[in-house]
Design a protein that fits this description.
Blueprint (H helix, E strand, L loop, with lengths): L3 E5 L19 E5 L12 E7 L2 H9 L8 E7 L2 H9 L5 E5 H9 L4 E10 L4 E4 L15 E4 L4 H12 L8 E4 L5 H7 L4 E4 L1 H10 L4 E5 L7 E7 H5 L1 H23 L1 H10 L6 H11 L1 E5 L3 H16 L15 H15 L2
Parallel strand pairs: 3-4, 3-5, 8-9, 8-10
Antiparallel strand pairs: 1-2, 5-12, 6-12, 6-13, 7-10, 7-11
Helix pairs in contact: 1-8, 1-9, 3-11, 5-6, 6-10, 8-12, 9-10
């Protein structure tokens, strides 16, 4: 069993370090130390920024937390922007997030590098409109209220959708709400549409089968998610070695999910997300397959294009050079480890 403890993520004197682009309130983070594996009493401790216990659950149920040669502390956050706050404050060494928060990490000058990228071939987010709003196409979004979570991947999804029809964010009313409240806001009728995750989409459509699914991420987003590590951690030889091992374990755990879908649905969607087994299975199957991909020019170009889109929409004040987040020596080492791990 993992020992859990609650601790404040950012003390009041550190509030000045928080990202100016992260508008959500700060909160507590949950930390869990690695289980009783032999060799886990080493001096190195990796502080991991997780979201919704996704990494923790993946590693735990797949057995990849056994026999760690270092300690791991999992800190739970509610969104990518909040993970960025943890990185900025020096509270974590590693963070997982969508492609948009990774852009804002660079835009905010957080000293991190990309160490791994996963790609999900699936719908990602879906633009769901309430019935009766008159929204059936992207062009119909003009002048409408749309729920997003600012600076998260669903915000980037919306800008890409609008761009497809020659629209800008100023052409709609973007209503900023926490990720966890997107479905509730859509249900309340205070917005016309929302950028919904697959889980939110499935639940909303169960109750509102007449809702309009305007477009999903298959045609507008690359499906990337990012793993970032602080430059300080990467400069420490012992922590860099631990990060290489941890990243390989993530890839192996991800492969385990693909070969044990029912166990994963029970462990994550049922026990963590508190969904029924039927809905969990539906969401898992609809989400699509996730694999780790090499960090290459395609990834860098995609991120730069997204950053430029945010700048064009007035959400980032000036052009950001995303290439600075990709270090050739880091990419070489971590690409090699991930390739080996995914070979089996």
């Amino acid at each position: 069993m993992m020992r859990r403890r609650i601790r404040a993520l950012v003390a009041p004197l550190l509030l000045g370090l928080l990202l100016p682009v992260a508008t959500a309130c700060g909160g507590d983070s949950t930390a869990a130390t690695s289980p009783d594996g032999s060799g886990s009493q080493g001096k190195v401790t990796l502080r991991i920024g997780d979201q919704g216990q996704s990494l923790l659950t993946t590693l735990k149920v797949s057995g990849q937390l056994k026999n760690l040669p270092y300690k791991v502390e999992f800190n739970q956050f509610d969104s990518g922007p909040l993970v960025n706050q943890g990185l900025q404050a020096g509270a974590i060494d590693f963070g997982v997030m969508g492609d948009t928060p990774a852009v804002f990490a660079q835009a905010s000058g957080i000293p991190v590098k990309v160490i791994a990228v996963s790609k999900t071939v699936g719908p990602g987010y879906t633009l769901v409109a309430r019935a009766g709003t008159g929204i059936r196409t992207i062009a119909d979004l003009k002048g409408k209220k749309i729920a997003i979570s600012k600076n998260t991947a669903n915000h980037g999804f919306l800008l890409r959708v609008l761009d497809k029809a020659g629209l800008k964010q100023k052409d709609v009313t973007a209503v900023d709400v926490p990720l966890q409240n997107i479905g509730n806001v859509l249900e309340s009728g205070t917005v016309d549409a929302a950028t919904a995750s697959e889980e939110t989409r499935a639940k909303y459509l169960q109750d509102h089968p007449d809702a309009v699914q305007v477009i999903n991420g298959r045609s507008v987003t690359p499906g990337y998610a990012f793993r970032l590590a602080t430059e300080k951690a990467l400069a420490d030889p012992a922590k860099r070695k631990a990060l290489l091992d941890f990243t390989a374990r993530l890839a192996k755990a991800n492969a385990w999910i693909r070969s044990h879908p029912d166990a994963w649905v029970d462990a994550y969607y049922v026990k963590i997300r508190k969904q029924t087994a039927a809905l969990g299975k539906q969401v898992f199957q609809a989400t699509g397959e996730t694999t780790y991909v090499p960090i290459d020019d395609t990834v860098v170009r995609s991120q730069q294009e997204q950053a430029d889109l945010f700048t064009e929409n007035g959400q980032i004040p000036q052009k950001v050079d995303l290439s600075q987040q990709f270090d050739p020596s880091v990419i070489k080492d971590f690409n090699a480890v991930l390739a080996a791990a995914q070979k089996g």
